[in-house]
Amino acid sequence: MKVRAVYARNLITAEPRETLARAAERMVEQEVGALTVFHGETFEGIITERDLVRAIAEGADPWTAQVDEHMTPDPAMISPDAELSEAAAMMLKLEARHLPVGEGRAVVGMLSARDILVDEIWPGEGSQAN
Q1: Of 6, 29, 36, 88, which has fewest CB within 10 angstroms of its CB?
Q2: Strand (E) positions, the chain?
Q3: Residue pLDDT, tens place only, 24-36
Q4: Beta bridge partners of 100
């Protein structure tokens, strides 16, 4: 099965200069574990739950520390035409649970490990509707 069948198409975003607290609030509100970070139309990176936890563990103040100080810049991306097995292997290699989905240089969505697991357990029930 292809990534195209299961990835989340609605991009939940953060801005580089917003606070970690605001990014965390958005993750909770949208029930996601990662946000794509854009400066205007330019894709800058992603910030994940792990990034937030690491930042706080290292002493960052979530109400003043900014996303661009703790995000993963220029993360690896996966094509919507890639096989899910390729995406899973990439996630394992990178020790990541989220991969931006890109067509050319455009980010078109986010693939999570959960998306892959859902497809394995309940084929055809992925995030495509998102």
Answers
A1: 29
A2: 13-14, 34-39, 42-48, 72-73, 98-103, 106-112
A3: 999 999 999 999 9
A4: 110
Class of domain 3-129: alpha beta
Domain residue ranges in the chain? 3-129
| Sequence-ordered list of residues with C-beta below 8 angstroms from that of 33, at least 6 positions apart, any chain | 27, 48, 49, 97, 98, 112, 114
According to DSSP, the residues that pair with 72 across neighbouring strands are 46
DSSP 71: S
> In this predicted model, what pLDDT tens digit does every residue of 37-63 receive, in sequence order?
999 999 999 999 999 999 999 999 999
Surface-to-core class of residue 8, CB atoms within 10 Å of its CB (0-12 exposed, 13-18 middle, 19+ buried): buried
Rounded to an integer, what distance in angstroms lies between the CA atom of residue 7 and that of residue 64?
32
> Which structure tokens are listed for 104?
């050319």
